[in-house]
Write a structure and sequence with these properties.
The protein has twelve helices and eight strands. With 331 residues, the protein is of the alpha/beta class. It is globular, with a radius of gyration of 20 Å.
Amino acid sequence: MPEHGGAGFNILCVGQAGRLGYETVVLAASLRASDPGFAGRLIVLEPQPGGRWPGDPRLPAPVRALLERFGADLVPFEARHFGADYPYGNKIEALLAAPEGEPFLFLDSDTLVTGALSALPFDFARPSASMRREGTWPVIELYGPGYAATWKSLYDRFGLDFASSLDLTKPDEYWERYLYFNAGWFFGPCPRAFGTRFLDHALSIRDDPPKELVCQPLDPWLDQVALPLVIHSLGGGRPGPELAGLDGAATCHYRTFPLLYARESDRAVAVLEEVTAPNPVKKVLKDHEPLKRIVYQHRGAEIRALFDRDNLPRREQVIRNTIKRAGLWMR
């Protein structure tokens, strides 16, 4: 039976100095506002000095104090393999520091909670991840291997059954036929088991890619290349309709604050503006230039006026370029 929320799982995210710290405050504030019944732990995983991050990547004191005010637990981890060379690897190594054997939902820091995560019927024994993605990988070259050959080489590398991963409702050599996720959220029964396999697969692909990947870009896609292999190997797959609240009514993976105002729901904008308004929060968040200009100086409304949410461009790059031409792009 699916395991419902409450104290049944932890929410994990990564927080560190700079942009991620401010985004994590917004995540924590929105969780408390939108899901006051969530009884699990919100765990902010924080890289430490001395690993693959230069200088001190830890959260500044004002951000740390705000996160603790929202009930977050800060847990340190060391970036031994990725760090500044590949920041997306944070989520892989951070999992190894999370509580062993406790079901988890990992959220990217640039996520807004807009509804009751604790009400969603997660089945943690069947891991899954976000389907809010575009066909970004693999990049098919004219005389190179196709989607099937490229993906099958990876399944073969790790001894996985390729055929059972396919969505047979989609045509051969169409990207959606192959298991591919956005790594903005994913869940499973144990973060350390998940993270150990994620790290193993990611390092194998990075350091010794199959010959079919010789022309394939792995930066920034490495985490999203390894993730479906990990999920498939742990008995998981595509999320069912019961989890539509993720990337729906319960969460919004906005990516950047300008993109949030450009394309996300009125509810997402309202939650963002509500949770960033209290003075103790504003005092800290206004030090982040995108929040200062986009939210507190109301430039987000100008961005929102540039787009019809019922008729958005299909490609995100078109949205970004429109915002940039208006001089309103910030991250």
